[in-house]
Automatic annotation (TrEMBL):
InterPro entries, alphabetized: BTB/POZ_dom, SKP1/BTB/POZ_sf, T1-type_BTB
PANTHER family documented for this protein: POTASSIUM CHANNEL REGULATORY PROTEIN, POTASSIUM CHANNEL TETRAMERIZATION DOMAIN-CONTAINING
Protein name, as recorded: Putative potassium channel regulatory protein
Protein species of origin: Pygoscelis adeliae (Adelie penguin)
Domain BTB: 5-106
Classification lineage: Eukaryota, Metazoa, Chordata, Craniata, Vertebrata
Length: 253
């Protein structure tokens, strides 16, 4: 590339190298006018444009110009300062997005798992404050059923007979219900239900094993276990509460 295609800026002592076309994304901005020698705030020193502004915040300005998205770290807090920098550079679409601070801040998600163990069956109910997270989790969980004879709760492997997948119960967009284990149906036929949670390929029938895999899946997905309590000692219902900070998707201009 020729020298005219490459632009070097020194912003607050931090050096940036970019394309001229990147700085010209918004023709009315000060950065675009700078390339036409129409910006008294910028000094050309040894082939580099010197800018007496915050270099750390300018890295977010450059990311915006390159992607046309606002995507900030989860612990970012200088929204007003960054908005002020965007206004200085004449990047008003960015400044308008930053003024909607509530859309850019990470949101706290709560997820609750209720687990009940009753003889040879285990019952699960999952509630989440974010319906998208619950929907994603529901796509990972599959319940399989089949009629068996002489099959026990602790058997580690399903029989050779084909199992039929069952849809999860979805009382609302924010929760799901499923169960595993064995039960007798009409005619004393033993009905078995197995649970599989992707990416694990096992089909588990033991409720305690399913619970362990479910909790491990949530922890790997960024959730943090904040409390464990017994909701009903008579019905043996346990509740596991999780939370995580969910980073919002980048806003696009």
């Amino acid at each position: 590339m020729s020298n005219r295609e490459v632009v070097v800026l020194s912003v607050g002592g931090v050096r940036f190298v970019t394309r001229a076309s990147t700085l010209q994304q918004f023709p009315e901005s000060r950065l675009a006018r700078m390339l036409n020698d129409d910006g008294w705030e910028f000094k050309l020193v040894n082939g580099e444009f010197f800018v007496d502004r915050d270099g750390t915040l300018f890295s977010y300005i450059m990311d915006f110009l390159r992607t046309l998205q606002v995507s900030l770290p989860a612990d970012f807090s200088d929204y007003q300062r960054l908005q002020r920098e965007a206004e200085f550079y004449g990047l008003y679409p960015l400044a308008d997005l930053l003024s909607q601070e509530h859309l850019l801040k990470p949101r706290l998600e709560i997820l609750e798992v209720r687990f009940s163990l009753q003889e040879t069956q285990a019952f699960f109910r999952i509630f989440g404050s974010c319906s998208t997270t619950v929907e994603t989790l529901a796509e990972q969980i599959t319940v399989f059923t089949g009629q068996q004879s002489g099959w026990s709760w602790n058997s580690p492997f399903p029989p050779q007979k084909p199992l039929v997948p069952l849809p999860l119960e979805r009382p609302s967009h924010h929760d799901m219900v499923f169960q595993c284990g064995t039960d007798y149906s009409a005619g004393d036929q033993l009905v078995a239900r197995y649970v599989s949670i992707k990416p694990d390929n096992r089909k588990l029938i033991n409720g305690t094993n399913v619970l362990g895999l479910l909790l491990d899946t949530l922890l790997k997905d960024g959730f943090r276990l904040i409390s464990t309590r017994t909701v009903s000692s008579e019905e043996k219902v346990e509740c596991y509460s999780f939370e995580r900070m969910k980073r919002p998707a980048g806003l696009t201009v």
